[in-house]
Amino acid sequence: MNQRFYLDYNATAPLRPEVRDAVAGALSLYGNPSSVHAEGRAARSAIEAAREKVAALAGARSEDVIFTSGGTEANALALAAQSGGSWHCYLSAIEHPSVLSGGRFYRETTTIFPVDADGVADLQILAKELEKHHLRGWRPFVSLMAANNETGAIQPVAEASKIVHSAGGLLHTDAVQAAGRIRLDMTTLGADMLSLSAHKIGGPKGVGALVLGAGAAVEPLIKGGGQERRRRAGTENVAGIVGFGVAAELASGDLAKAAALAALRDELETGARTIARDAVVLSARVARLPNTTCIAVPGTKAETLVIGLDLAGVAVSSGSACSSGKVEASHVLSAMGVPEEIAQGAIRVSLGFATERADIENFLKAFAELVKRLRPKVAA
Ligand code: PLP
């Protein structure tokens, strides 16, 4: 393969070399972590060391970390907890599909609350909705992501948790994209549950965690043995968890480099807007993750841009979802009220720990050629 420039960290990050080594080593820890003998104890202690590192990433206690098969399962576990009884579920319109599915909540007991034009959750509307249902005796279960995967817009989780708690409810936050990019702290966020995924921070795929706040409990989705303090049955993915731990530790260290990453991202945006002056950067007016940009080029199709960039060696993704052969604008951009003709040309470029200036320069070179080719009549 020719030289590649990977700018799709929000889809998945490359495996960190330190993680690869740790996972390879942990594959030899063949003991069952539930066994009392030395082999079992060695596997157990590797898991517990990883649990502490993952807890540190979320500002949580290690006993409150439940390892899962990834962010999707962590979200499902959170949403399964309060699906019965007198709970009503509130989800922001820009949540990841694994949250928007509502877990086991019925459609009648689920309310989607909107975001503004900048892609930030509208807490006034949420507060009004909570009041309405509170009067009917419902307890609210709210899920608001820490930051959006497409635009990077950081969500007002701490403010939301105050509103939710004063209504007697619980707040879950999907922090899969925020982890390692902005500081996370369960207490400051006021979150009762927080989801993480290893592969977005340079860990292996297929491992994640649901982190609980003080006093929060979950109803196991997977029942069987007593693993994970009876909250998630099944022999643990020891090597995956060890890799997650190493990735979490390194991701915590990356926070110090956030400003440098944001500077590279800003350089990319400035360059892209010099090439296509009418390009629109979505959520540009609000606080965003330092690594993410969603750029729409009017008069182009995101799929064409993504394929064109790929052929030039640059990996990015589109802000459109392709369902049943029809390319539709993403639900995130629709929720923000982005006009269809702009949303259709939106690509997401996401940077990460291994991104260098050469990645940005090569993106801009390929982008310039592509935009010129796709829109020959539009003067830059
Ligand atoms: N939540 C968000 C915001 C995501 O971006 C993703 C992955 O794209 C997930 C959850 C799902 O995580 P996983 O791939 O570990 O199931």
Please characterize this protein's 3D structure.
- The protein is an alpha/beta fold.
- 39% of the residues lie in helices and 16% in strands.
- It has helices spanning 17-26, 38-58, 71-81, 97-100, 123-135, 157-166, 186-189, 227-230, 238-254, 258-275, 302-311, 331-335, 340-343, 357-374; strands at 5-6, 65-68, 87-92, 110-113, 139-143, 170-174, 193-197, 208-212, 280-281, 292-296, 314-315, 317-318, 320-323, 326-329, 346-350.
- The strands form 4 sheets. A 7-stranded mixed β-sheet has the order 2-8-7-6-5-3-4, sandwiched between helices. A 4-stranded antiparallel β-sheet has the order 9-10-15-12, covered by helices on one side. Strands 1-11 form a two-stranded parallel ribbon.
- Strand 3, helix 4 and strand 4 (110-113) form a beta-alpha-beta unit.
- The model has no long low-confidence stretch (mean pLDDT 94).
Structure characteristics:
single chain, 380 residues, alpha/beta, seven-stranded mixed β-sheet, four-stranded antiparallel β-sheet, 15 strands, 39% helix, binds pyridoxal-5'-phosphate
Structural class: alpha/beta
Name the ligand types: pyridoxal-5'-phosphate
Radius of gyration: 21 Å
- According to DSSP, the number of beta strands is 15
Order of helices and strands: EHHEHEHEHEHEHEEHHHEEHEEEEHHEH
Low-pLDDT runs: none
Strand content: 15-25%
Biggest sheet record: 7 strands, mixed
Summed up, the helix count is 14
Widest sheet, order of strands: 2-8-7-6-5-3-4
Helix content: 25-40%
Query: For the residues shown, what is the average pLDDT?
Result: 94
The end-to-end span amounts to 32 Å
CA-based shape:
globular
